[in-house]
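Field guide to reading this record: the first block holds the primary sequence, the second block holds the structure written as discrete tokens, and the final block holds curator observations. Each block starts with its own label. This record concerns ABC transporter substrate-binding protein, catalogued under organism Candidatus Caldatribacterium saccharofermentans.

BLOCK 1 — SEQUENCE
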Amino acid sequence: MRKLFVVVLCVGLLLGGVVSAQETIRIGANLEMTGAVAAYGQMIWEGVNLIREIVGDTVLGKKVELVLVDNKSDKVEAANATTRLIDKENVVAIIGPAISGSMLAAGPICEEKQIPIISATATNPLVTQGKKFVFRACFLDPYQAAAAAQFAREDLKAETAAVLSDIAQDYCVALGNFFKEEFEKRGGKVIVEQHCKTGDQDFSAQLTTIINANPDLLYVPNYYTEIALICRQARDLGYEGIILSADGADAPELFSVGGDAVEGLYHTAIWDATKGLNDIGQKYIDLYKERFGKDPNMFGALGADAYLILIHAIERAGSTDPVKIREAIEDTENLDVVTGKVTIENGDALKPVVVRKVEGGKFVFVKTVTVE
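BLOCK 2 — STRUCTURE
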């Protein structure tokens, strides 16, 4: 430790002054750079660095220094990385793991040590529940389902609905339940509920029951393969009503499996990579396309959001005190980030939900929905 100090001091003197740790603001990045979900962490890291090119890396007159630690897509490693970033690297805040399991391991440590941590993409409600120093940049599944129900009632004018959800996936079941609750809260009626399982190929029994009930809308909050097959079989059986899904539809395979049958499908999404909802979002999209020659991904965009939320919180706090930064994050309201505007409430992100429609074999932006 003494040798390291001497080296830094000498470099500082050579540059004409003493280098102080106070001249930088250290932010940790506890991400999945290797392991089972390495792609998620790598995309988030890519987004964080890209947005730094756009907005700069200085806040309160100090340079922001990012300290990356690979959690190897492992809960124990995520906890260890959190401890290292706080105790050894002296970070004032952390951009946390991508997945909920690792955030659930990291969050309690940050809570105990009073260091704010924000995940780009962890959606489990337990991640932030009962915590003051744990945040997320993405919306929760209940919020997405509520947005779908609001869109179904107000824009699609659906009075009745059917729900066909994948009972083998907690994500799908939860979305279906939350949609029903919100749809009926808004005066609609879910007249039939059916279930399938991941890997099913034949949905004729469920669809026959649904078609006989004659709902205005069919809500299928599943993953893309089952959605595509359900659309094909529903159309073959003569169903002509509206089909609405969630962000599980967002994959190229929806089109290759569903073909013409998915034409007209609506779905809710985190964002639309072809249309910036504000100036910072458009700049991000343009730079990403210029740099990589393709549309940006959701994980990188939400990583950029997490960075922007932190930087603006530090600026508003006027301090590098982690407690004051935490307070400023919680006070975030209508902040322009890459995916739109975001407000933080009880650690969770409230932001517009994008609605898209399949037209001509591709997703086309329809509108954004802010749950009221």
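BLOCK 3 — OBSERVATIONS
Residues 16-139+278-352 form a domain with the Rossmann fold fold (CATH 3.40.50.2300).
DSSP finds twelve helices and 16 strands in the chain.
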